Structure prediction request, 317 residues.
Amino acid sequence: MPLKSARPLKSTLRELFAQEPFAVARRVRPAGVRLVALAVLFVAVTALAAGTRAAAGDNPLLSLLFGAAVVALATASYAAAVRALEQRPVSELDPTAAASGLRTGTLVGLGLFTATLAIVALFGGYGTEGGVSVGGAVAVLGAMAGVAVTEELLFRGVVFRLLEELTGTRGALTISALLFGALHLVNPDATVWGALAIAVEGGLMLGAAYVATRSLWLPIGLHLGWNFAESGIYGTTVSGNEDGPAGLLHGVLSGPDALTGGGFGPEAGIVAILVCAVPTVVFLRAAGRRGHLRPRRRSTATPASPTPPDRGTPTAP
Prediction:
């Protein structure tokens, strides 16, 4: 019996992420209506993901299982909702681009945070104490996989993409980045400066990564790699959250807040902003060369299908 029920499920998932055009069955609502509907859906999905992280706690196995479940639920929900509301294939989650986008994004995210912390350490702002915790690193990986997917689907897949239909690329980048930063104001030890730093280094960089490739896989990988390095490897605070699983190392920050980010973590430091500004510029220049920057359009009744995702990562000019 389980084998028989597995086939319809696999067939359904294949249909959700299929890239072939299909017949339009209903009128596509204006971008503002779709923005509200999809945002409500993904706020609920994000809240559910937060609940599963709390339930998993520091347990590595539960964190991996719950993280995988959140990833599957979030991506399937997004694909189903977009196909229903926008009557188009979900090209921004093209499965054929997933492996390269996630691999490249994760490696770049790991490298960017490693560079950030190396500069902080160079000025005496980072050290470690105690031993290592492999189980803690695994638990962080599961938790951050769910965080990266749900937040990128919400902020780049929903907020940025649909705002772009209303305001063009520049307006969508600005508004979605500010909203992304404002979300972090509810975190412990949050400050306005920390929120603005997140808006610049996270909101702008991840939005630019989406614009450059028109795929969500690269920003998901970047988000995962950065967060996992920050907490899972180097054991520093992620956006003020200190109640998550301990990482591989137990990091200790010391020195001026402008360097270390203070209680909010390295993301609120000037070094992180400067490091993340580099790929942001690279991504935006690549987007311009590829014709991916969009002006504000007068009519928003019918959505434009996202440009098919590129199969590679933009390189510096």
